[in-house]
Amino acid sequence: MTSLLSLSLCDIRDKLAREETRPGELVESCLERIAATEPSLRACLTVCADEARARAAELENNRPSGKLPPLWGVPLTLKDILCTQGVRTTAASRMLENFVPPYDAFAVRRVKEAGAVILAKTNLDEFAMGSSTEFSAFFATANPWDIERIPGGSSGGSAASVSAGQAFGSLGTDTGGSIRQPAGLCGCVGIKPTYGRVSRYGAIAYASSLDQIGPLARTVDDCSLLLRVIAGYDPKDAQSADLPVPDYRQAAAGAADSPAPLAGVTLGLPVEYWREGLSPEVESACENAVDAARELGASVKELSLPHLPYGVAAYYILASAEASTNLARFDGMRYGLRSGKGDKLEKTYSASRSQGFGEEVKRRVLLGTYALSSGYYDAYYTKASKVRRLILEDFERALGQCDALLAPSCPITAWPFDAYTQDPLTAYKMDILTLSLNLAGLPGISLPVGLGKESRLPVGMQIMGRAFDEEGIIRIAKAVESALPPLGPPAALAGILRRRA
Ligand code: GLN
């Protein structure tokens, strides 16, 4: 039964189509895996066992006679920042500990309509602010490759759940790297779509001009399939793009079979991404992948994105500024936990926010409020907005000279718990390679390219492309994926399962 869990989403889908398995069997296998791994991993905030079983039964009783919808019977998990009708959605915050949304996020509705079964809501850094999932108000999630280490973040629960075989795919959000970085650290594939490609309706907002929902799964094909389901126009998101959605999987098909699938493709290596701060093992695994791309026919050239070094500073001003306004609604009156400590309105506000928000969220709200305050607005917010423009122009110039840009997804492999929780500045630098792409609003995919020579932990590489050219980066990712040996099951998994048995 458990061998089903090592299959890719696309393989499971084919098995379902051939009636070699049933939604009910898959749900039971996944729930069993969740029960066996959760004591060690803590990837899930809410497991929806009853709902998942009922849904599987409903699907089985109404099996369509013709072609199955794209995700029919496929168990998925969802980052707990995506609203799910009737299922608690916490954003990993005490503030929303008991929030049960009356509606589904657009992307959630889409996967449900496509036939998916929702198994669990996964852990994250509170309101998606962090890069290790240690800032969840409830508990920290462990990496299935080494349970003494973080899974990355903020979509760390989603990445861990996919990597450990709890589900065949997951949806996360990426504001500054929160899909690509945990996907990289857990050995999964993750896509951050172009800003506007996927509706943000029903995703609890962190920084609205940067947030994007995207898939995490085990293969490029799996992510392509999920992306196709969730992408598309939604009038409820003012920034949603009214553009046709290609069949991404189809676009990448053929890449695996052709002897030189990347012939005619030019890949750019921005020197700023490769220059400093990379651990030697990350650098060498990614260089190996670049060599593989060369062998597949791509030409590779170095280029420069001169404003990239200012990305971290600009991002943390802008993201915190937006967060401070987005989180203003959680005051115990309009939304969120209400403290019993205040006897007056102002006191209720401050007591509710003091109790409801964790340390990292408070830090961001303070930083953001400061950056937006009169007298400092021009010095910080306006300046950061200008830098954002320059970074976008850098990307556009670079992508005018090549088809896609390559860079590692994270400077190091997964780090031990608590390594940076007391050192926010160093922690902020863990997104140095991912967050500029959000400032530019462009798409990126993170792909596992091997294990670090010393750590034996997964290394991810990003492929970043032009606006709305997810197809292009998926095609390149698929070719590179086919040329590299698979990572195999996460190293700690066998031990976790044995301990349980
Ligand atoms: N680590 C970054 C931050 O804390 C990015 C998080 C994200 O993409 N949600 O802002």
Structure write-up:
The chain is an alpha/beta fold and 501 residues long. It has a domain at 2-261 and 446-500: Alpha-Beta Complex (Amidase signature (AS) enzymes). Helices cover 40% and strands 12% of the residues. It has helices at residues 9-17, 23-41, 49-61, 106-113, 156-163, 180-186, 220-230, 248-252, 271-274, 280-295, 311-326, 345-356, 359-372, 377-401, 424-428, 435-440, 470-483, 493-500; strands at 44-47, 75-79, 117-122, 169-174, 189-192, 212-217, 266-270, 299-303, 404-408, 444-451, 458-464. The protein has an 11-stranded mixed sheet, sandwiched between helices. The longest helix has 25 residues, at 377-401. The chain is globular. It starts with 8 loop residues before the first helix and ends with a helix. The structure holds glutamine.
Keywords:
12% strand, binds glutamine, single chain, 501 residues, Amidase signature (AS) enzymes, alpha/beta, eleven-stranded mixed β-sheet, globular
Unreliable sequence segments: none
Determine the N-to-C terminus distance: 15 Å
Form type: globular
Strand order of the largest sheet: 1-3-2-4-6-5-10-11-9-7-8
Main beta sheet: 11 strands, mixed
SS elements, strand count? 11
- Portion of residues in beta strands equals 5-15%
Predict the CATH topology of the domain at 2-261 and 446-500.
Amidase signature (AS) enzymes
Class from helix and strand fractions? alpha/beta
Q: What's the number of helices? A: 18
Query: Could you spell the SSE succession in H and E letters?
Result: HHEHEHEHEHEEHHEHHEHHHHEHHEEHH
